[in-house]
Specification:
Length: 287
Amino acid sequence: MPELPEVENVGRALSAGLTGRRLTALSVQWPGVFEPSAAAARKALVGRTLVGLHRHGKYLIARFESDDAAVPSSFLMIHLRMTGQFLSQDSLGDDYAPDRHVHVTFDFDGRLVHFRDVRKFGRLTLVEHATEPAALSHVGPDMMTVKTNDWLDRVRHRAAPFKSVLLDQGVAAGLGNIYADESLFLAGVHPLAKPRDLDEAVLREVLRRAKQVLRLAINHGGTTFLDFRNFHGQPGNFRRKLRVYGRGGEPCRDCGTVIERMVIGGRSSSWCPRCQPAPVARRKRRA
């Protein structure tokens, strides 16, 4: 599933290639991708100009404006979910023919952009606000911009495994399985450790490392294992930088210990037993 770095790269490419262009046509092959409907999307977007994109966690919100200043702006929230892709026809070449997984083609004044989604989980939703729509009321602050004290307040009393806390989008938005494993490794924290049992300095280190790994992954175009491709049809290059994720049974790049793997909360988790020692539960105080 595309996480924050992948979505950030998609957003940057869409913004660079399409900002200032008018959406002149919308070809819909599968109406179910739009919420509330394809007809509503066509009415709200066609004839308007893309003027900006905002990312929050794993979501993008595109802002469209009419030439008539009296007409309110329209906002399209994009959630790629597992296999959603935006592909530029210009980058793919004239020989590219959309397959059955291309559900929408946007025509920005002659520049074609395809939304392709093999699993059909991705959604394009009309929302009422550019940065804080009601549809994201359940989502916490963005992981890249969350303030340290705010994040500490959200995690310091949690009794769930730290891996599960990092995946909780209500705590902070953007981390998924890949970067949660990488963040915990860099911080030297076992995925089963409970935030409430850790010192504040350790909690701060997890946040610092999470932001560090996200910045690095953004700079490398994200991570591709199967489906993720950027706007130009190219995969992300961060896979070769991964320390633990997907490396169960292989030696740790730092100490040589065999990377172990287990399932936490239904999600695969990888860690180094030496670099991330098993947690010691804090003893209960006697009454």
